[in-house]
UniProtKB/TrEMBL annotation:
UniProt keyword list: Membrane, Transmembrane, Transmembrane helix
DNA-binding is among the record's keywords: no
Keyword Membrane: yes
Residues passing through the membrane, by range: 43-65, 77-98, 132-152, 164-181, 222-238, 245-261, 267-283, 290-308, 395-412, 424-443
Name the record gives this protein: Unannotated protein
Length: 501
């Protein structure tokens, strides 16, 4: 198994480098896709766990590859064949799961996810999204990432999950280093070309400061992935694994620094919430106390930000009023200390989410699977729907009343599963599952987060598998315990039995 895995890694590396060279020479991504897609399909059938291990690497470097090679300046849903390599991998892995005879009974969470999948497929035919192609394209963003859940339920063994966790940890460190280089040294030429060609307004913080996006397709994806990486490193640091504790703390500090300077305040708040939740779950506190600890962690973040200079004077005094660091720190601290103020985008996000949720009552059947993602802008000219920042608004717009109901069930079942797993196992894997769920809270159906969305669903599926095994072992243990002999009446004339004390 190990020798075959080593040979497979060598084949993947040689084929990837070869296709990159050919793409550079040919000036197109078609060559890359023509080589990579058959390779992905072959690995999926022959060694699915290897492909699962490779997937985080590919997804993290997807945006970088598209920008670095010719034809990759546009990272929107532009028909670039490189974009479909990840979905192809998930679909083929799903066929492998179907072909496997070792099926598992559906857990309560699995039933809810299955219901979500069915609704997503049915909404493809919704005419309000502007056409059938918009609905089919929307499946790439809404439906395909959730296949990771079923793949995780089948192949998410502790060994595979450990490999994925370590890949995410190391990749978050690499992404942080590249993002900090962009922010404080320079943007490489391929990144500058993309910035100029896209005119991505969310990157511009004013005063000539451009928000870092590292190897990803957007700054938002970069920030959410760093949140996941921060949670993973913090869990690993709680119980040093393979590396000394100072190394874990140093890695966690680098990722946290990159996340802070990325200046995406939503991810900062979500990360604080997730850290508070996993700390309380590690102590096996009650669910209401765990939730309260998450809220307290967010409150402490606000207090701490105000104490170190939320008004801007502190950072300016330390870094200089016109330095990049000073501007980024002031932007971040002003939003953290006053999250509902005029300089914060949170009120706008909340308003958009609220409008999206209430639209479900005006359009009970929603606008379709492609109405809240990039598929709508590419394939539809008549749909007026657009996505919101968070899942509840998107579900209200895309799936209507059914979307809100099924998402509420999913929110309940998923968080309950993560909490139970963390409390029962009391090990890094259980805490990682809960931490990833919380670090991506309310962004579980955002398929535009290429490297994060599928990863969440795979981790959740693996967690559901672990919890099911845990419950089965507990049931077997209970059944196997010796029980008292059954009571029988003494027959007439039969001597009394001695009672043992």
């Amino acid at each position: 198994m190990s020798s075959r895995g080593g040979r497979s890694w060598l084949i993947v590396l040689v084929a990837t480098l070869g296709s990159l060279v050919l793409s550079l020479v040919a000036g197109t991504h078609i060559v890359f896709a023509l080589i990579a897609i058959p390779l992905v399909m072959a690995i999926a059938w022959s060694n699915p766990t290897l492909l699962i291990t490779i997937m985080p690497v590919w997804m993290v470097f997807l945006g970088f590859i598209r920008r670095f090679t010719p034809g990759g300046g546009n990272v929107a849903f532009s028909g670039d064949p490189v974009l479909i390599i990840g979905p192809v991998a998930l679909v083929v892995l799903m066929f492998v799961v179907f072909n496997d005879k070792d099926s598992q009974p559906l857990s309560p969470l699995a039933r809810v996810v299955l219901g979500f999948n069915v609704v997503a497929i049915l909404e493809v035919a919704n005419p309000k999204q502007g056409g059938l192609m918009a609905g089919i394209g929307g499946l790439l963003f809404v439906f395909v990432p959730t296949l990771g859940f079923w793949i995780g339920r089948r192949y998410g063994t502790p060994e595979v999950l450990w490999r994925v966790v370590w890949n995410v940890a190391i990749l978050s460190l690499v992404a942080s280093a590249y993002g900090l280089y962009q922010q404080f040294v320079q943007f490489p030429s391929w990144d500058i070309t993309w910035i100029e060609s896209k005119g991505y307004t969310a990157l511009n913080l004013g005063s000539g400061i451009i928000r870092a996006f590292s190897t990803f397709s957007s700054a938002q994806e970069y920030a959410v992935f760093l949140s996941v990486g921060l949670i993973v490193w913090s869990v690993l640091a709680a119980k040093s694994v393979r590396m000394p504790l100072p190394v874990h703390l140093a890695a966690m500090s680098v990722v946290a620094l990159a996340l802070f300077y990325e200046s995406q305040r939503t991810s900062i708040f979500i990360s604080a919430l997730a850290l508070g939740v996993i700390a309380a779950a590690r102590l096996r506190m009650r669910p209401i106390t765990v939730a309260l600890c998450g809220v307290i962690a967010v409150g402490l973040l606000v207090v701490f930000a105000g104490a170190i200079g939320g008004g801007g004077g502190g950072s300016a005094a330390l870094q200089g009023p016109d330095s990049t660091a000073s501007i980024l720190v002031d932007h971040q601290l002003s939003g953290i200390t006053d999250p509902t103020g005029a300089g914060s985008s949170l009120p706008g996000h909340i308003k958009a989410t609220r409008v999206g949720m209430f639209s479900a009552f005006k359009n009970p059947f929603g606008h379709g699977s492609g109405s809240t993602n990039l598929a709508s802008s590419r394939y539809s000219t008549s749909s007026a729907a657009s996505g919101t920042e968070f899942d509840p608004g998107n579900m209200g717009i895309a799936f209507g009343i059914f979307g809100l109901i099924i998402y509420a069930l999913m929110l309940w079942r998923m968080t309950a599963m993560g909490y139970r797993l963390a409390v029962l196992r009391r090990d890094p894997l259980g805490l990682v599952v809960l931490g990833v769920i919380m670090a991506t809270l309310l962004q579980w159906t955002n398929g535009n987060l290429y490297s994060v969305c599928w990863l969440l669903w795979f981790v959740v599926g693996a967690g559901d598998r672990l919890l099911t095994k845990q419950d089965e072992e507990a049931m077997v243990s209970t059944i196997s315990e010796p029980s008292a002999p059954p009571f029988t009446w003494r027959k007439p004339g039969e001597p009394r039995r001695a009672v043992r004390i």
